Amino acid sequence: MKKAMLQMHAAVFLWGFTGVLGRAITLHSTMLVWWRLLITAISLWVLYLAQGKSRRINPKAGLQIALIGTILALHWVCFYASIKLANVTIALTCLSTTALLASLIEPLILKKPFDRVEIFLGLFAVAGIIIIYYNHLQFSVGIIVGLAAAVFTVLVSVLNKKIVDTYQPEQITLYQLSGGFVGLTVLLPLFQTFFGENFVAPAGWDWLWLFLLSWVCTILTFFLYIRALKKISAFTANLVLTLEPVYGIILAFILYHENREVSRWFYVGFALISVAVVVHTRRLLKRS
Q: Nearest 5°: phi and psi at 244?
């Protein structure tokens, strides 16, 4: 159990590091994600083919998983765009609202009844975001894009619930990331037309950061996460996952001194969001 918890915390810490790497990489968000998906997808196919095991699934299911992968790609694009438009701290703060947004969006998609307490907690978190927004107007676009990233995360999570019991995690990851790469490639002309983001190849240190992002913060973290799940409950895993923004923000403060880029009102807003997340997590604990 202790080894599994260490693996889980290591995975979450490395996920928190993705934001720091995103700021270090000079590519714009779309190209950053495109190259990340390309490197990750090729690496996963090589690993799985080397194992000699079949990863085939029926075409209809493969298309569904690939479409979810495209939504995941859009989440990453928005997340890294938020970092470029604001900073790592703001992007991760927006991402920390994911669990609360899920409690509001999930009932709409899965046709479940709304929980009044969850709605109240969601509004509590919204109040925190509003405080941060109006006291950091220079980051306003980054905050909006960061919240879009959180919404895409919720959609991926909810849609994955419909397939997670049918296919192996390795299959889902392989086809989702490959599908995300194909989907983002198809969407590239739209990004070029509306946002002027042309195809750009990495240069210099960007190659190192991209391989770290793909191999260490994507593939390695996935295997650590899956191994840990064999020993600990899904609830414990989700509890540890709430630390991802905390790890990422601490790293951003240490490496980029982002604490100098935010005002005291950021901490007020972040405190409101944190209280809502903690209460939400405690309610889940009582239900389990």
A: -55, -50
Spans of all domains in the chain: 2-287
Q: Which two tokens stand for residue 131?
A: 């405080």
Helices 116-134 and 88-95: crossing angle in degrees, nearest 10, is 160
Q: CA–CA separation, 248 vs 240, rounded Å? A: 13
Phi-psi region of 111 (alpha: psi -120 to 50; beta: other; left: phi over 0): left
How far is it, in rounded angstroms, from Cα 258 to Cα 137? 16
CB atoms within 10 A of CB 192: 13
Go through 64-74 and write b for each residue having 16 or more CB atoms within 10 A of its CB, e for each that does not: bbbebbbbbbb
First vs last C-alpha separation in the chain? 19
Task: Tell me the pLDDT tens digit for each residue of 228-261.
Answer: 877 776 656 666 777 888 899 999 999 999 999 9
Residue 76 C-alpha from the chain's centroid: 7
CA distances from 150 to 21, 178, 236, 288 (A): 19, 21, 21, 25
| pLDDT 10s digits, 96-137 | 888 778 777 777 777 778 788 888 888 888 899 999 999 999
Nearest CA-CA partner of 169 in 222, 220, 239? 222
pTM of the model: 0.91
Tell me what pLDDT residue 5 has.
81
